[in-house]
């Protein structure tokens, strides 16, 4: 099991124990984006859709569902999908 998947499972278990719902894919991917690019602002415009404001660049929309589907297939597919998303968001 990879570190990413282990962290997701641990966070879900911790939140379940506290009586809270686990984080959504929107929240998890928003955190990955702001962790990689601290100057970016991420807003959930609708469930499954993120708006990423990038300084001095056009705002970009990220569809969460295709990335989540890759993540459900396994850690390797998930890492690839997240990495591709992050590459598309960086400076041109």
The major beta sheet can be summarized as: 3 strands, antiparallel
Could you estimate the helical fraction of the residues in percent? 55-70%
Distance between the termini: 34 Å
Quaternary organisation: single chain
Order of helices and strands: HHEEEHH
- Strands across the major sheet, in which order? 1-2-3
Secondary structure elements and pairings:
Layout: H1 3-17, H2 25-36, E1 41-46, E2 49-53, E3 60-63, H3 64-73, H4 75-89
Antiparallel strand pairs: 1-2, 2-3
What does this entry look like structurally?
The chain has a 3-stranded antiparallel sheet. The chain is globular, with a radius of gyration of 14 Å. The chain has 92 residues and is α+β, with helices and mostly antiparallel strands. The chain has helices at residues 3-17, 25-36, 64-73, 75-89; strands at residues 41-46, 49-53, 60-63. Strand 2 and strand 3 form a beta hairpin. 57% of the residues lie in helices and 16% in strands. It has one domain.
What is this structure, in a nutshell?
The protein is α+β, with helices and mostly antiparallel strands and about 90 residues long. The chain is about 55% helix and about 15% strand. It has helices spanning about 5-15, 25-35, 65-75, 75-90; strands spanning about 40-45, 50-55, 60-65.
């Amino acid at each position: 099991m990879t570190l990413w998947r282990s962290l997701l499972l641990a966070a879900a278990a911790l939140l379940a124990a506290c009586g809270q719902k686990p984080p959504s894919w929107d929240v998890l991917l928003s955190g990955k984006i702001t962790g990689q690019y601290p100057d970016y602002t991420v807003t959930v415009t609708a469930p499954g859709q993120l708006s990423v404001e990038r300084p001095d660049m056009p705002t970009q929309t990220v569809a969460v569902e295709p990335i989540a589907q890759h993540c459900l297939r396994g850690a390797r597919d998930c890492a690839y999908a997240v990495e591709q998303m992050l590459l598309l968001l960086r400076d041109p």
